[in-house]
Specification:
With 327 residues, this protein is of the alpha/beta class. The chain is built from eight helices and nine strands. The chain is globular, with a radius of gyration of 24 Å. The chain starts with 6 loop residues before the first helix and ends with a helix. The chain crosses the membrane at residues 307-326.
């Protein structure tokens, strides 16, 4: 996975490192606690983690992967051995209704792409075409806004950001207007890529159909046992899928999936209403950070060198923020 590389992120990482903060203790993506590189090695410094790498017209960090996911694939000799699975992939079937996102998307993605476990998608539009198993976001780790609202002002106490780094959205941890508490604001923070396409299209923008689509009936909608019986019939007894939703000509579930086609394009038209933003230009996010090269070596160091004496206090503040992040 990769997170977008931008000026604010680079300033936070380089400044924290300048003050001697252990980036292994800071939450992703302002640190790399719990993450390793594609070669299963720890990151040694901010530049090693941040990069950036140019993909298309955008800047992204280097590839990272969660430690627990990486070792779940390979094991860790002497520490963690991969156990025998309770069920073989060929004896397993996944059922979704499209309401699958984030962690669900991650698990379903690994089980289908790496183990070849087939998926039956329930419901969907009344069309003779496939349906995607995952209908929600396929983005990376969920992060909350609160820790970053605490961290950015803490850094600003010791050193001001460069003029091209806009920290305005984080100036006030508690907005003056009434609304949802900031600790409830969450986003998926990163793009996830396939192992053989690390500089290609994130899975969020890939069409990935289920192996079979099955419409609900009154019996399957009101009784979970009936639903699983219908799915088992598809998997083991040659039951029929919705026409056009499988690779097999006879309507049974195939071992592969159908690709994208015009048949799955939605005909829904959004009706514009008050406050809708229909058209607009993309704002400038300040580039890759630092002096434009992404290495953080600005000619004006913003007094970072003269403030190194405050590194101990800054580290303490960051430790407190990490505790808040964990809690």
């Amino acid at each position: 996975m990769r997170v977008r590389a931008h000026a604010a992120l680079n300033w936070v990482g380089t400044t924290a490192e300048d003050f001697g903060t252990d980036l292994q203790m800071l939450p992703y993506p302002i640190g790399f606690n719990g993450f390793i590189d594609e070669g299963l090695k720890n990151f040694t410094n901010w530049e090693d983690f941040y990069g950036p790498e140019k993909i298309g017209d955008d800047q992204f960090t280097n590839i990272v992967q969660p430690m627990e996911v990486a070792y779940a694939r390979t094991g860790l000799p002497g520490v963690f051995e991969i156990p025998e699975p309770w069920f073989k992939p060929e004896d397993t079937i996944i059922v979704t209704d499209g309401h699958c996102a984030s962690a669900c998307a991650y698990v379903v993605g690994m089980m289908t792409r790496e183990l070849g476990i087939p998926v039956v998608a329930m419901g969907g539009r009344p069309i003779d075409a496939p349906m995607q198993a995952v209908g929600g976001t396929k983005g990376g780790p969920v992060i909350t806004l609160r820790p970053y609202q605490l961290l950015y002002p803490a850094l600003g106490t010791f050193v001001s950001p460069p003029e091209d780094v806009d920290m305005t959205p984080f100036a006030k941890p508690d907005p003056p207007l009434a609304g949802m508490p900031t600790e409830t604001w969450t986003i998926n923070s990163a793009n996830i890529y396939l192992d053989d396409d690390l500089e290609g299209t994130p899975v969020q923008f890939r069409y990935e159909a289920a192996n079979c689509k099955l419409y609900y009936t009154w019996d399957t909608l009101t009784n979970m046992t009936n639903l699983w019986t219908a799915v088992a019939d598809i998997k083991w007894n040659g039951g029929k899928c919705v026409s056009g939703s499988t690779t097999n000509d006879d309507g049974t579930m195939g071992s592969s999936t159908l690709g994208y086609s015009d048949k799955v394009v939605s005909n829904f038209t959004w009706a514009a209403g008050p406050g809708d933003v229909i058209e607009g230009s993309r704002p400038d996010n300040g580039g890759g950070g630092g002096n434009g090269t992404g290495d953080g070596n600005d000619e004006d160091q913003n007094a970072a060198g003269s403030l190194r004496g405050g590194g101990g206090l800054l580290s303490f503040l960051m430790f407190a923020i990490v505790v808040v992040f964990i809690m």
